[in-house]
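A favour between colleagues. Tell me how you read the following sequence-structure pair.

===
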Amino acid sequence: MTVKNKQSYLILTVFLGVLAALAPLSTDMYLPSLPLMPAEFGVGTSVIQLTLTMTMAGMAIGQIFAGPISDMKGRRMPLVLGMLIFAASTLVCVFAKTIEIFLFFRFIQGLAGAVGIVIARAIARDVCEGPELTRLFSLLMLVNGLAPILAPVIGGEILVFTSWRGIFAALVCIGLILTVASLLFKESLKPEDRIHGLGASFKSFGMLLSNRYFLGHCLMQCFAFAAFFAYISGSSFVFQNIYAVSAQTYSFIFGGIGVAIAAAGGIPARFAGRVSDVKLLRWSLIQAFAGSLLIFAAFWFQAVLPLVILSLLVVIPMVSIMGAASFSLAMRAHGKNAGSASALIGFFSMISGGIMAPLVGIAGSANAMPMATIMVIGEALALACFYLMIMPKHRAEKA
């Protein structure tokens, strides 16, 4: 498939952006309701945060299979099936009466949502390369940035009229819309470019992970997203339980930070071809680490709410720049295995978030230090991976 004009390019970007946004839509839309859910299910804070973990774990594992399958079968039909299952599993969540059923179908929801996430990135690699790939992926991050802005705001407003179940009903509608859009999508992977057999694709995982440079990007994103998901899973409790803001006020704070994420997502597109991706990546990682130290200090000294928000604005938006630059650099040499490479990058970023979510609540719903500590450690390790595993190759290319 080729992008023939600006209109088709825009439509493709929006479609891929919404697919890639399934992760924040599935996690962020019901964040304002998290503090309300323990009482309804009769469980503690960490158990409720496991509802985030199950979705992220499902998305991580699902990408491992969705990538190779799309490399073998093409992008369209796996996408249609994935969106149908996403809608169906979300519908079960709407009517779940026990935490066990809810957790199980949150996992299934994540598995199905992973199909959209990994195939969106693979399609981007199908149609673009080099600076154009960086530009398209940064635009995806920009569109993707709208989800954290709108999702909690929409979720907070839905809570005014109904319970958290209404939020999941809205997600069912999104899944059905994406199913229809997937049916209309024109296949981007030519038959002659497909792999033959899943064995060959899974074998490529070993080849990709034995590449120190590619593994460096996977690990770097793993640690950076651990910090990001610590914020995702802990922010509602921090703002609502510690700073005593309402669900609606929290949704607007979260959405405001989402505006910054979206704005940062446009930076790689603006500078693509003029500033190297590796320079953008280095800058984003350094600022994110510095910002995590500010957040730690703000919570340690019990800073006022505006200072906490300002500290978060230093670090959280960097995830857009880091993601766009890293993905472009990691994928450039792996066009033949775009689905598998995309799956591995997605797996490492999602699995870390799933692990971190319950740890954020380990000290209770009124303690912000676990969130701050995880963010500092995650950003520090991401920066270490960059300098130890990614930067050496770029230094060697200059020599």
Summary: The radius of gyration is 20 Å. The mean pLDDT is 83. The CA atoms of residues 135 and 271 lie 9 Å apart.
